[in-house]
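User: Let's play a game. I give you a shape written as tokens, and you guess the letters that built it. Ready? Here's round one.
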């Protein structure tokens, strides 16, 4: 590993010691999994209650996002995204001052306001490729970044234009080699902007521009991604490849998610991003007891 730990405030991520749990707070009306906070009434109050539950059940990070990434979702401009997420981040920071908060955005303007509001990590689904200024924001505030591999079709016109109105899509010459190369391209963007190696986390982007078979292979070969030397976040929770495999809707994919989490941890995942925090924190703890104790 290029760095064995990451310090954020009084909290230290000691990579390899255990699996860290990121709980998903979707401040949207249209989450693919049906957990969009806006659809449930007062977004701030709902987020506080959900965060309280997450933290009580083992979440280490609260991941706040204001734009759905589900296929067919409508893009959200920066101002609307900020209207959704900034009040929530302020409230979380006030009510849970020790909690680690990440902002799930690819927009520099949103990320900067989120950091001002109390966010500690920037989680970018486009790996710093969609907004040139995002890396500069992270470097300016010394904010750790999660860089995701993504070959999905951008919903945003601005992002499509940034990529030249084209995207690579799900055609891979060599899945693992291609994912590794493109993740390292994102890491290089981070380093060139002045982001420290210790502040970079990689996400292989399960479900983003990949077929069911690609996703299954990626999880099984996750160790090859971790060989790049950075901590790995794995986000498989309730995703469609689980639904296709089990023929189940999003709200019935907890067992399928559990299988991906257990295998992912066994293959080297450091952080799991999940909707079902209580259940997946237990899966992670049990898997850690088997895998990490055996490695000592």
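Assistant: Ready! My guess for every position:
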């Amino acid at each position: 590993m290029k760095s064995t730990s990451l310090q954020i405030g009084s909290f230290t991520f000691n990579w390899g010691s255990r699996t860290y749990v990121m709980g998903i707070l979707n401040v949207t009306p249209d989450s693919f999994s049906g957990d969009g906070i806006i659809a449930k009434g007062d977004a701030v109050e709902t987020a506080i209650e959900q965060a309280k539950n997450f933290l009580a059940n083992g979440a280490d990070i609260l991941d706040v996002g204001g734009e759905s990434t589900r296929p067919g979702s409508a893009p959200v401009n920066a101002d609307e995204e900020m209207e959704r997420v900034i009040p929530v981040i302020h409230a979380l920071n006030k009510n849970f001052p020790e909690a680690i908060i990440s902002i799930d955005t690819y927009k520099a303007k949103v990320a900067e306001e989120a950091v001002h509001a109390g966010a500690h990590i920037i989680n970018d689904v486009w790996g710093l490729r969609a907004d040139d200024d995002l890396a500069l924001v992270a470097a300016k505030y010394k904010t750790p970044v999660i860089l995701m591999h993504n070959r999905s079709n951008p919903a945003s016109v601005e992002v499509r234009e940034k990529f030249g109105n084209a995207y690579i899509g799900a055609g891979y010459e060599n899945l693992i080699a291609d994912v590794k190369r493109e993740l390292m391209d994102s890491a290089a963007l981070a380093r060139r902007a002045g982001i420290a190696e210790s502040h970079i986390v990689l996400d292989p982007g399960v479900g983003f521009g990949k077929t069911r078979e690609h996703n299954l292979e990626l999880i099984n070969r996750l160790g090859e991604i971790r060989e790049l030397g950075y901590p790995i976040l794995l986000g498989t929770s309730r995703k469609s490849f689980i639904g296709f495999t089990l023929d189940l809707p999003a709200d019935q994919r907890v067992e399928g998610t559990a299988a991906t989490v257990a295998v992912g941890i066994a293959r080297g995942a450091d952080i799991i991003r999940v909707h079902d925090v209580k259940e997946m924190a237990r899966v992670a703890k049990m898997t850690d007891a088997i895998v990490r104790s055996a490695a000592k």
